[in-house]
Specification:
GO terms for molecular function: thiamine-phosphate diphosphorylase activity. Keywords: Magnesium, Metal-binding, Thiamine biosynthesis, Transferase. The chain is of the alpha/beta class. It is about 40% helix and about 15% strand. It has helices at about 5-10, 25-35, 55-70, 80-85, 100-110, 120-130, 155-165, 180-185, 195-200, 205-220; strands at about 15-20, 40-45, 75-80, 90-95, 115-120, 135, 170-175, 190-195. The chain has an eight-stranded parallel barrel, surrounded by six helices. Helix 2 (about 25-35) runs parallel beside helix 3 (about 55-70) and helix 2 packs parallel to helix 10 (about 205-220). The two termini are about 30 Å apart. The structure holds 2-trifluoromethyl-5-methylene-5H-pyrimidin-4-ylideneamine. 2-trifluoromethyl-5-methylene-5H-pyrimidin-4-ylideneamine binds near residues 43, 95, 136, 171 and 193.
């Protein structure tokens, strides 16, 4: 994928599905259904009890990457920089406990997407200075997908960042559903990232469609 400009990243963040083998028995089937529903970006996050490692992690990553490539949506790897490079991923997402975004940028080069989780204005400013292409802001609402999530912060940080004039693409994360997505968009998020709202849905395709409709209508109203 050629270099990702800011507008392309902003657009891709509308419905950012995140999953790994811990979140669903068949990540590939759920990813296919999410893409049918209109998912605009995917993050392979292989973390938590029972997460795959080594060759199995790489093999699943290759399948998920090929699925994203066929659909033309960005394929992002969470945390694991070696895996991101081995898979020729479109980008990588790192948290505050991972390597600084500046080091990541030097490793992956200018043409790939670097996403960073930020929980405060200081963390956001540092990530931007380090060359982040987007920030993951949350948890906005209580989340069931991450056992070591930070304190629920509502839309406070989203509003603070936008009021401070930060224009970088921002994606909301944490407990987002079709019913509350508009709140995050109205507060300045360019999209929502979800794990269980899609991975645990009876119909992931329908869940994505409903989420995307909520995001799209809230974006129009902004
Ligand atoms: C912990 C995380 C926080 N935010 C995001 C994203 F939505 F991609 F920004 N991904 C993560 N894995």
């Amino acid at each position: 994928m050629a270099g990702w400009n800011e507008a392309a990243v902003r657009r891709a963040l509308r419905l950012y599905f995140i999953a790994g083998s811990v979140n669903c028995s068949s990540p590939l089937d759920v990813l296919r259904a999410a893409i049918e529903g209109g998912a605009t970006m995917f993050q392979y996050r292989e973390k938590g009890a029972g997460a795959l490692e080594g060759k199995a992690k790489l093999a699943l990553g290759m399948q998920l990457r090929d699925c994203c490539r066929e659909a033309g949506i960005p394929f992002i790897v969470n945390d694991d920089i070696e895996l991101a490079i081995a898979l020729d991923a479109d980008g990588i997402h790192v948290g505050q406990e991972d390597a600084p975004a500046g080091d990541i940028r030097r490793l992956v080069g200018a043409g790939r997407i670097v996403g960073v989780s930020a929980h405060t204005v200081e963390e956001a400013r540092q990530a931007i200075a380090d060359g982040a292409d987007y920030l993951g802001i949350g948890p906005i609402f209580p989340t069931s997908s991450k056992d070591d999530a930070r304190a629920v912060q509502g839309t406070r940080l989203l509003e603070e960042l936008r009021n401070a004039g930060i224009a970088l693409p921002l994606v909301a994360i944490g407990g987002l559903t079709a019913d509350n997505a508009a709140i995050a968009i109205r507060s300045g998020a360019d999209g929502v990232s979800v794990i269980s709202a899609v991975a645990a849905a009876p119909s992931p395709r329908l869940a994505v469609r409903q989420l995307l409709a909520a995001v799209a209508s809230a974006l129009q109203g902004r």
